[in-house]
């Protein structure tokens, strides 16, 4: 099936950039969020981003105008998905909320529509049975910042049809990404499993008082050639996300080692959620 119309549900940290990627690649995109403030932020981001690309000479004025016509923002979930070929969900990492949304999407979307989740950790088989189309429910996982990062993980659990996986891989390629296909479901997929190992160790070193978070970041950058250190990255991806993911994992495994680290809990409780909050490990005011 050739996908032309995409709906992105959730215009937050990931969703607004995924929507822009799709619009830049010529898809017709509708981006929705139930929170008017978040949607408003996504609309100004889109305007400013396109202006900036034109000013940088990376996009012609004509192309920017075309992208603007490719993308629409709406508060209405129904309006965003009624004619979508592919829905990409990018809402909060809470299983019960995602299951409720997917059941609603199943009722609102045409029969052919593929429902993908951008979840960082939750495998789609945990959501697919909330719909009557499990073969068309899969993971399509982007990385932050989605406009820049080339990787997209497409996960073909045993309930996912070949056609669904192929269509989603094709969409990612059309978005100028380099998708990777996972042939089975695994918690954290590929990238977050690798990332988690570094992140856990960095938090442990900080909690043990071995070095400051700034020096741990510097060590990762200059000793390993990482583009940014683990604490800058936590600020970018969101400390709230790290907290929810840790809690979700802990509630499933019951293993105390899976609980978010004391530092993450402290920052989460204080509302210091990273770049989007103006403060995380670093100050962004
Ligand atoms: N949004 C959109 N574009 C951005 C951006 C952002 N937040 N930050 C940077 N860019 C763009 C710039 O506009 C610039 O574009 P151009 O070259 O076409 O003009 C380009 O990226 C380079 O930007 P800068 O020169 O300002 O900065 P850097 O070269 O330092 O790159 C970075 C910034 C891309 C964020 C880089 O530091 C990086 O790759 N960091 C690692 C990010 C990473 O590891 N992401 C994965 C996180 S894990 C995840 O997302 C999983 C999830 O499940 C939690």
Automatic annotation (TrEMBL):
InterPro entries: 3-OHacyl-CoA_DH (IPR022694), 3-OHacyl-CoA_DH_NAD-bd (IPR006176), 3HC_DH_C (IPR006108), 6-PGluconate_DH-like_C_sf (IPR008927), 6PGD_dom2 (IPR013328), G3P_DH_NAD-dep (IPR006168), NAD(P)-bd_dom_sf (IPR036291). Residues 5-184 form the 3-hydroxyacyl-CoA dehydrogenase NAD binding domain. The keyword Isomerase does not apply. Pfam families: 3HCDH, 3HCDH_N. It comes from the Bacteria. SUPFAM superfamilies: 6-phosphogluconate dehydrogenase C-terminal domain-like, NAD(P)-binding Rossmann-fold domains. Residues 188-284 form the 3-hydroxyacyl-CoA dehydrogenase C-terminal domain. Gene3D superfamilies: N-(1-d-carboxylethyl)-l-norvaline Dehydrogenase, domain 2, NAD(P)-binding Rossmann-like Domain. Transmembrane segments: none annotated. Keywords: Oxidoreductase. This is 3-hydroxyacyl-CoA dehydrogenase family protein. It comes from Arcicella lustrica.
């Amino acid at each position: 099936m050739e996908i032309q119309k995409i709906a992105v549900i959730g215009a937050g940290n990931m969703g607004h950039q995924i929507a822009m990627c799709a619009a830049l690649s010529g898809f017709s995109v509708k981006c929705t969020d139930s929170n008017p403030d978040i949607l408003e932020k996504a609309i100004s981001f889109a305007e400013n981003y396109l202006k900036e690309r034109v000013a940088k000479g990376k996009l012609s004025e004509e192309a920017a105008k075309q992208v603007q016509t490719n993308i629409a923002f709406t508060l209405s979930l129904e309006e965003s998905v009624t004619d979508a070929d592919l829905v990409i969900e990018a809402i909060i990492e809470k299983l019960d909320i995602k299951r409720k949304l997917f059941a609603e999407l199943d009722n609102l979307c045409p029969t052919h529509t593929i429902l993908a989740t951008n979840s960082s950790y939750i495998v789609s088989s945990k959501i697919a049975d909330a719909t009557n189309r499990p073969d068309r429910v899969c993971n399509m996982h982007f990385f932050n910042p989605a406009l820049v990062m080339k990787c997209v993980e497409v996960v073909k659990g045993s309930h996912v049809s070949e056609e669904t996986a192929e269509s989603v891989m094709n969409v990612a390629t059309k978005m100028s990404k380099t998708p990777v296909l996972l042939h089975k479901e695994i918690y954290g997929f590929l990238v977050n499993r690798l990332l988690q190992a570094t992140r856990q160790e960095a938090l442990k070193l900080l909690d043990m008082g071995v070095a400051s978070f700034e020096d741990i970041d510097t060590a990762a950058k200059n000793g390993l050639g990482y583009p940014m250190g683990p604490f800058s990255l936590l600020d970018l991806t969101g400390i709230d996300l790290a907290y929810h993911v840790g809690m979700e994992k802990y509630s499933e495994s019951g293993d105390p080692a899976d609980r978010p680290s004391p530092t993450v809990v402290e920052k989460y409780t204080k509302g210091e959620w990273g770049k989007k909050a103006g403060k995380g490990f670093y100050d962004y005011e």
